[in-house]
Specification:
Elements (H helix, E strand, L loop, with lengths): L3 H4 L5 E3 L8 H9 L4 E3 L3 E2 H6 L1 H7 L9 E6 L3 H11 L5 E6 L4 H6 L9 H14 L4 E7 L11 H14 L5 E7 L12 H10 L4 E4 L5 H11 L3 E4 L1 H5 L11 H14 L11 H8 L1 H10 L5 H6 L4 H14 L23 H13 L7
Parallel strand pairs: 1-2, 1-9, 2-4, 3-4, 4-5, 5-6, 6-7, 7-8, 8-9
Helix pairs in contact: 2-12, 5-7, 7-8, 8-9, 12-13, 12-16, 14-17
EC number: 1.3.1.88
InterPro entries: Aldolase_TIM (IPR013785), DUS-like_FMN-bd (IPR035587), tRNA_hU_synthase_CS (IPR018517)
GO molecular function: flavin adenine dinucleotide binding; tRNA dihydrouridine synthase activity
Length: 365
């Protein structure tokens, strides 16, 4: 039986894998405020194997940083094995991405688009189990409702898949309590009861993912699901101190992040895709507040024009000096999908979109 969960300290607070947004500096900030296990951004196995520049700029696990799982995406057992062999010396485990719902995952035949192909999943996990020196884990969603056969959709199909994943030798399982269709504008509440059913079904350590905005949500999720740990993604991007249960000024957190980013061995390697986007997310609420109370301060232009970490820090300092009070909950980055942009005045919608673009963010929600 795998000792993986004990080896990583039986964590309760887990920082999610996020494309371009769970890099070394951000992981360190999250650990500072309570994250006990962190995941790297999703890495494309085929590109990792074939492209030395991609490896140098994306594989950013540093010895001694704390327990870190490297997440890989792909569908070919041989390619995924080659990629896992490249990262295993850096990783507490390798994780198979079975959750990404984006069109690029459909095009690349990975992520949640593999959930209906249990034979392919089993082949990958068995290959890893036979050849790697580190454990293998998976991150899944609930199987979507597309099949006309009720036994091949929803929770029943997911439970059967979990049986196969466990039998194939996975050491732990993260369950995002939404299906593939529930993303972007169709994002809704995660199904904690489905996660509870999965936890009752398997002996694997289960990490629950979805609906986590505050530390109170963590406690509620653990109580409902019986999971071993809780993972946060988007809410952690806005509030990296979420797991601490403490309240911090966003500008203070942004400054801490930038200091860590500047000290990172990967400083500004992916500046326009990583550091800028982090600052936009952390400062999303005060920026929206200032758009109403201090429209003369063009925070979006300050951020979009930044060309280095020092420029970003200058923008943070100006925003901190101009901040006029605590933003409302409706200003939250995490909650943006709960209050549709259509409810905002046209000028406010345009400003929010400009803010996202300033950080290199897509406008899908």
């Amino acid at each position: 039986m795998s000792t993986f969960w004990a080896d990583v300290g039986q964590p309760r607070f887990v920082a999610s894998p996020m494309v371009d947004q769970s890099e070394y500096a951000f992981r360190q900030l999250c650990r500072r405020y309570g994250a006990e296990l962190c995941y790297t951004p999703m890495l494309h196995a085929k590109v990792l194997v074939s492209d030395a520049t991609y490896r140098a700029t994306r594989l950013d696990v540093v010895p001694g940083e704390g327990p870190t799982v490297v997440q890989l995406a792909g569908d070919d057992p041989k390619v995924l094995l080659a990629a896992a062999e490249l990262v295993q010396e850096h990783a507490a485990a390798v994780d198979l991405n079975l959750g990404c719902p984006q069109p690029i995952a459909r095009k690349g035949h990975y992520g949640s688009y593999l959930l209906r192909e249990p034979d392919a999943i089993v082949a990958i996990l068995q290959t890893w189990r036979q050849h790697l020196s580190v454990p293998a884990t998976c991150k899944i969603r609930i199987v979507d409702e597309g099949s006309p056969d009720p036994q091949n959709r929803g929770l029943q199909a997911t439970l059967r898949l979990v049986d196969q994943i466990e039998a194939a030798g996975a050491a732990a399982l993260t369950v995002h309590g939404r299906n593939r269709v529930m993303s972007g504008k169709k994002t809704g509440a995660a199904d904690w009861l489905a996660i509870a059913a999965i936890k009752q079904r398997t002996s694997l350590p289960i990490i629950a993912n979805g609906n986590i905005e505050t530390l109170n949500d963590v406690a509620a999720c653990l109580a409902v699901t019986g999971a071993d740990a809780v993972m946060s993604a988007e809410a952690l991007l806005e509030n990296p101190a979420l797991f601490s249960g403490q309240s911090f000024d966003p500008c203070t957190l942004a400054t801490e992040y930038l200091a860590l980013a500047a000290a990172s061995p990967f400083a500004e390697v992916n500046f326009h895709r990583v550091e800028k986007a982090h600052v936009v997310r952390i400062l999303h609420a005060p920026m929206r507040q200032l758009a109403r109370t201090a429209p003369a301060l063009d925070t979006t232009s300050l951020l979009s024009g930044a060309t280095c970490i020092d420029d970003l820090q200058h923008a943070v300092d100006l925003i901190a000096a101009a901040d006029r009070g605590r933003p409302s909950a409706a200003d939250s980055w995490y909650r943006r999908h709960r209050g549709p942009l259509a409810d905002e005045p046209r000028s406010a919608r345009k400003d929010i979109q400009r803010q996202w673009l300033a950080g290199g963010l897509r406008l899908t929600r």
